[in-house]
Amino acid sequence: xxxxxxxxxxxxxxxxxxxxxxxxxxQSRRPQERAVRRREALxxxxxxxxxxxxxxAVTHRAVARRAGLPLAATSYYFTSRDQxxxxxxxxxxxxxxxxxxxxxxxxxxxxxxxVAETLTGVYASDRLRQLGLWELYLQxxxxxxxxxxxxxxxxxxxxxxxxxxxxxxxxxxPGEVRFVxxxxxxxxxxxxxxxxxxxxxRAREAVARALAALGPPARVGP
Length: 222
What we know:
Blueprint: H1 26-53, H2 60-67, H3 71-77, H4 81-103, H5 112-120, H6 127-139, H7 144-168, H8 174-194, H9 199-214
């Protein structure tokens, strides 16, 4: 049975000279718009499942059930579970980076403890969601199809750290950014895995020491 989202094929024909090509009617756009909405719903469901149960929780059946769509919809829009996981991972990375940029948008101060407070504020997020993200990040070590997304995650985190360091007046060359961002990533994984009661405080102290090692911040402004 043909899927209702697939528009019926139209024989191609070159328009006659001097004859304007008729614009696509709103009625013909509706199936495409509906298809886009259904595909987005499936990806949203996959991202939610990554947060709920991690890599193993994302199956075609579970995604379709969470999205409230027929099981056949997942195989129609995604050729394999690997494609579904990769696109869900990419969407999760995109959303997390956007959240991080918002979180560190305003510095609470320029001293090492204050900037450390800003940078480690990214920990104040959904722990299960973070577990799903880092689980896929580690899976990228075994799956080359996920490596480009994992690198985009690392590069995005570096950009966030660089923006904070620059705003606070600290050195923000590639070496300094990698030093701070690498430390943050390790602390972040430790925090979401171990969930220590004092994890946040331990992370702030470690990042503050790293910032102090960069030297005092330069004067910003007149």
